[in-house]
Amino acid sequence: MAFQLEFMKGLNHPFSKNDEAAGRKWLHSFLRRHQELNLRKPQSTPMARIRGFNQENVINFFDIWEPLMNTVNHSPNRLYNCDETDLTVIQHKGNKLVSLKGKRQVGSVSSAGVTQMSAAGHFLPLFLVFPRVNMKAELLDGAPNGSLAVCHKSGWIQNESFVQWCHHILRNAKPTKDDPVILVLDGHYSHTRNVELLELARVNGVHIVCLPPHCTHKMQLLGVAFMLPFKTYYAQAIEQWLKQNAGRVVTHYQVGVLLGEAFNKGATVAVATNGFRKTGLYPCNRHIFSDFEFQEVSPNTHEASDHSSEALPNRLDDANTSQPRPGSSSINGPKTPQN
Fold it and tell me: DDE-1 domain: from which residue to which, for each copy (predicted)?
């Protein structure tokens, strides 16, 4: 912007015409002149993730995954991944701006959303949780066809609502013991505390496998391929809605329409197939990650406490074993932080 202003005004400037941008020296001088401004650095990968994402954990996961693929005859139509995220009514995926120090804009969580896609590119309808007591049909106005919504005052997905979510899967994927599906989830500890859900999955032919601990930044398919463009489209939809409705604010009753617009743009066959390919789950490729992606960490390096996931049983059949391993079965209500 500084280069463009100088160019438009025809002023003499030291900026590079090739780069068409102000230089680092100018930026430092600008910040010295405006002490109320600063630059913010991105957070680094937590130490637990650096240590957790290693060759041993990935190999152990694929030792479980490859034989399990035989139960569905390596059919991409029977491979599903599920992930949850929080959705706010505040635009939160815009470009970074230079701002006043200490200036913040905090938005409240509007809903928790659960998304699921198959290796063949099929996205199941959304499952939403609104932070309120009473459900109203208007909350789903404009949402993707077939979407389901429930309410809970905490805004978190509870055990009971996650069982409802499992029924949501059964209605859409239609698994049976003769024609099962494989469902890949992250390994959060709360995914193993719902016996009713485990039994429902076992009876209906749903094989549940958990990703290795602290590896979701590389192996969570929806996180790798879908969530970023989806949230970007959602933020753009909010921005456009606010422009068209000056003086109004986005509420729960607009979330369905905004989500529908973002979901229809982001939920493409290419996105789904790319997520499975990039993580090596389909086509199955245990060597998908290069050696340089596994960062070596000194044993003496301090590891920050991280309770977001833990080693879990490998399969639904191992849920009662005492020795945890990288993959696991069963799911419980994912907890989406409430602002």
Answer: 150-245
Mean pLDDT, rounded, of the chain: 79
| Secondary structure element (H or E) that encloses residue 184, with its range | strand 181-185
Quick check: 43 pLDDT over 50? no
Phi-psi region of 12 (alpha: psi -120 to 50; beta: other; left: phi over 0): beta
Number of Cβ within a 10 Å radius of residue 295? 11
Chain segment 60-91, per-residue pLDDT in tens: 999 999 999 999 999 999 999 998 888 887 76
Q: Which pTM value belongs to this model?
A: 0.69
Compute the distance between CA of residue 247 and CA of residue 98 in angstroms, rounded to an integer: 25
Q: Looking at this protein, which amino acid is placed at residue 326?
A: P
Residue 29 contacts by C-beta under 8 Å, 6 or more apart in sequence? none
**Beta bridge mates, 127:** 114, 148
Nearest to 267 by CA among 225, 211, 295, 224: 225
Quickly list DSSP for 124-176: EEEEEEESSSS--GGGGTTSPTT-EEEE-TT-SPPHHHHHHHHHHHHHHH---
What whole-number distance in Å separates Cα of residue 280 and Cα of residue 276? 6
Is residue 82 within 8 A of residue 248, CB to CB? The reply is: no
Dihedral sign (CA 193, 195, 197, 199)? positive
Q: CA geometry: angle at 74 spanning 196 and 185, to 5°?
A: 35
Distances (CA, A) of 28 to 23, 41, 156: 9, 15, 44
Residue 247, C-beta contacts closer than 8 angstroms, at least 6 positions apart: none
Q: Is the dihedral of CA 297, 299, 302, 304 positive or negative?
A: positive
The DSSP bridge pattern shows strands 181-185 and 206-210 to be parallel
Label residue 146 left, alpha or beta by phi (over 0 means left) and psi (-120 to 50 means alpha): left
Q: Which of 49, 62, 51, 50 is nearest to 288 (CA)?
A: 62
Give me 266's structure tokens: 């982001």
What is the rounded CA–CA span in Å between residue 172 and residue 124? 7
Instruction: List 79's β-bridge partners, or say none.
Output: 182
